[in-house]
Write a structure and sequence with these properties.
alpha/beta, 9 helices, 2 domains, four-stranded parallel sheet, TIM Barrel, Lyase, Ornithine Decarboxylase, Chain A, domain 1, 348 residues
Length: 348
C-alpha cells in the first residue's frame, strides 16, 4: 500500500504535525484542531437548517469539547461521566442530548436533575423509565436501518426498533406526558452505499407523515450527530516498529509488530473492519505483511487477511503513521492491559 499524505492533509499541515510528532515518544496520536474547526464549519454550511450535536464518545478530549462549544455546537452524550465532563467545560443543559438508548433509571434522573430535557429511546421499558425519571421531557426514537453489509462499522441491530414500534412508542410517549419529538437513525460508520441513506430518510418521512395525519403528533427534531466525520481525518497515530519477523525459513510474508495495537487505540481494526491508511518514510520495493500489536494476546492482530504492503527495508525502530485516526482511538484505548498505559494524545 503506497500512501500519498497529500490526499489526506495539506502539505503544510502534515509537515507541522510530523515535526511535532518527531519530538515525541511513541505511541501517541496527534490531532490538528484547525482541521476539526474547518470540518465543523463545512458541516454547518451544508446543513444550515440543522443543529449539530457532537458525539462525545468519538473523542472526549477537553480540547475538542472546548473548541466545539465555542463554535456553538451541542453535544450527544452517552453516560453520566460524559455529561459531567462536558458540563464542567461550561456547556449548558439545553445543548445536550442523552443519545444512549441503554441507560439506568438513576442515570436518567441524574440527567434530568442537571437540566437535560432531550432523551433518545428505542423500547417501551426505557420509555417508561424516562417518563418516571424525566417527566415532560422530549423524546426521539431510534429506528433500525438496513446497510450493515455496506458499512465498515455497522451500528444497527443492537440499537433501534422497527417502524411500527417507533410509531407506537411516540404515541405512548404522548400518553405518558412526554413530548414526542423526533426520529433518529444511523446507517453505519463508513457507509459506502448512498442508497441506504435514501431508504432511511424515506422511513422517517413515512413516520412523520402518518403520526401527523393519523394521531395529530407533529415531530420537529432535525439534528446531526457527527463524531468520526468531524475529527477522524484530523488525527495521525504514530507507532514504532518493535519487531519484524518471519514464521519459518520459507515463509513468504513478514510479521510487523508495532507498539500500538487493538488494546491501545486500534480496536476498530477488529475483524479488519476499519482499514486505516498507513504511511512510512521508508521507500522502495513493497511486500505484503501481517501487522500486529505488542501485547501477549493472540487476538492483537490488526491486519492478517487484508494484506498491507510495506517497504521491504522497513526495520525495527522505524515509525508508522496511521492516518485518519482522530476518532475512537483514545476513547477505546485500554487502561492497563499488559501494563501498557493509555494512548497519549496531543492537540496542535
Amino acid at each position: 500500500m503506497s500512501i500519498n499524505v497529500e490526499d489526506y492533509f495539506a502539505r503544510a499541515t502534515f509537515d507541522k504535525m510530523k515535526a511535532f510528532a518527531d519530538k515525541q515518544e511513541t505511541p501517541f496520536v496527534v490531532i490538528d484542531t484547525a482541521m476539526i474547526s474547518q470540518a465543523y464549519d463545512d458541516l454547518r454550511a451544508g446543513f444550515e437548517f440543522a443543529k449539530v450535536y457532537y458525539a462525545v464518545k468519538a473523542n472526549p478530549a477537553v480540547e475538542i469539547i472546548d473548541l466545539l462549544k465555542d463554535k456553538g455546537s451541542s453535544f450527544d452524550i452517552a453516560s453520566i461521566y460524559e455529561l459531567d465532563k462536558v458540563m464542567d467545560r461550561g456547556v449548558s443543559a439545553d445543548r445536550i442530548s442523552y443519545g444512549n438508548t441503554i441507560k439506568k433509571s438513576k442515570d436518567i434522573r441524574y440527567f434530568y436533575e442537571k437540566g437535560v430535557r432531550l432523551f433518545s429511546t428505542d423500547s417501551e421499558a426505557d420509555l417508561r423509565n424516562i417518563a418516571k425519571a424525566a417527566p415532560g421531557s422530549k423524546v426521539y426514537v431510534r429506528i433500525l436501518t438496513e446497510g450493515s453489509t455496506t458499512a465498515d462499522w455497522p451500528l444497527s441491530r443492537k440499537f433501534g426498533c422497527q417502524t411500527d414500534m417507533a410509531m407506537d412508542l411516540l404515541i405512548l410517549a404522548r400518553d405518558l406526558g412526554l413530548v414526542p419529538y423526533g426520529i433518529s437513525f444511523h446507517v453505519g460508520s463508513q457507509q459506502r452505499d448512498i442508497s441506504v441513506w435514501d431508504a432511511a430518510i424515506a422511513k422517517v418521512k413515512v413516520i412523520f407523515e402518518r403520526l401527523k395525519e393519523e394521531d395529530g403528533i407533529e415531530l420537529k427534531l432535525i439534528i446531526l450527530e457527527p463524531g468520526r466525520s468531524l475529527i477522524a481525518n484530523a488525527g495521525i497515530l504514530v507507532s514504532e516498529v518493535v519487531l519484524v519477523a518471519r514464521k519459518s525459513r520459507t515463509a513468504v510474508e513478514r510479521w510487523v509488530y508495532t507498539d500500538v495495537g487493538k488494546f491501545s487505540g486500534l480496536i476498530e481494526t477488529m475483524d479488519e473492519a476499519i482499514k486505516f491508511p498507513i504511511w512510512t518514510e521508508k521507500k522502495g520495493e513493497m511486500e505484503e505483511v501481517v501487522i500486529a500489536g505488542p501485547t501477549c494476546d493472540s487476538a492483537d492482530i490488526m491486519y492478517e487477511n487484508y494484506k498491507y504492503g510495506l517497504p521491504l527495508n522497513l526495520a525495527i525502530g522505524d515509525r508508522l503513521y496511521w492516518l485518519s485516526t482522530g476518532a475512537y482511538t483514545t476513547s477505546y484505548s485500554a487502561v492497563e492491559f499488559n501494563g501498557f498505559p493509555p494512548l497519549k494524545s496531543f492537540y496542535v
